[in-house]
Amino acid sequence: MNTCIDWVNRGIGLACRLVLYATLALTFLILSANVGLRYVSGTSLAWASELPELMFPWIIMSGVVLAAQHGSHIAVVLLTQRLGRSRRWVLAGGAITVALLYLGLTWASLPLWEISADEYTPILNVPGSVTVGCLMAGFVLLAVVTLTQVPTLWRSTGTDAELEGAST
Questions:
Q1: Phi, psi at residue 159, to the nearest 5°?
Q2: What is the pLDDT of residues 124-168, one digit of tens each?
Q3: How many CB atoms lie within 10 A of CB 91?
Q4: Contacts of 27 (CB under 8 A, 6+ apart)
Q5: What kind and span of H or E run contains 127?
Q6: Among 79, 121, 127, 149, which residue has the least CB neighbours within 10 Å?
Q7: What is the spatial distance between Cα 12 and Cα 14, in angstroms, rounded to a whole number?
Q8: Mean pLDDT over residues 102-123, rounded?
Q9: In this predicted structure, what is the pLDDT of residue 153?
């Protein structure tokens, strides 16, 4: 079971890194080319401002999922530190609750995704559902990442370092 969870986490991490690196590099290249074009010829590419706007949510969501995987987020542990060994129950229950809330956000976004499919960007003619779909995919990945951390919380012996590093 642990191997399967590791494979899922590695796959999610790899996919998010690929999206993050590709979108950041492409955004940098597009904006640099557009600035160079303006400097040299006084004109710009019409789509050069629209494409980075479309890629920005992908950059953000991939970064959020990676941060959740590594526990690089804000956590309030004041109460859970005082619980002793029972805090693994609280943290595991909290992780399951958070995962369910992410899935609830995904479900709540479904009507918005359907509505935004009819709206297109002015230049590239990309449907708005691409951006909303990115958010929905990010919520699902956050739920999966959070759920994959529950076994670590559960098996934990209760030391501060293990529990703080595994809670999201």
A1: -75, 150
A2: 999 999 999 999 999 999 999 999 988 887 776 455 444 455 544
A3: 25
A4: 51, 52, 55, 56, 59
A5: none
A6: 79
A7: 5
A8: 94
A9: 78
**What is the C-alpha to C-alpha distance for residues 167 and 35, in angstroms, rounded to an integer?**
43
Quick: pLDDT tens for 62-72.
999 999 998 77
DSSP state letters, 18-73: HHHHHHHHHHHHHHHHHHHHHHHHS---GGGTHHHHHHHHHHHHHHHHHHHHHT-S
Q: For residue 106, which of 60, 138, 130, 129 has the smallest C-alpha distance?
A: 138
As a whole number of angstroms, the distance between CA 96 and CA 89 comes to 11
The whole-angstrom separation of Cα 139 and Cα 58 is 12
Minimal CA–CA distance to 60: which of 130, 135, 148, 142? 135
Tokens representing 81 are 């530190």
Q: Give the DSSP letter of residue 119.
A: -
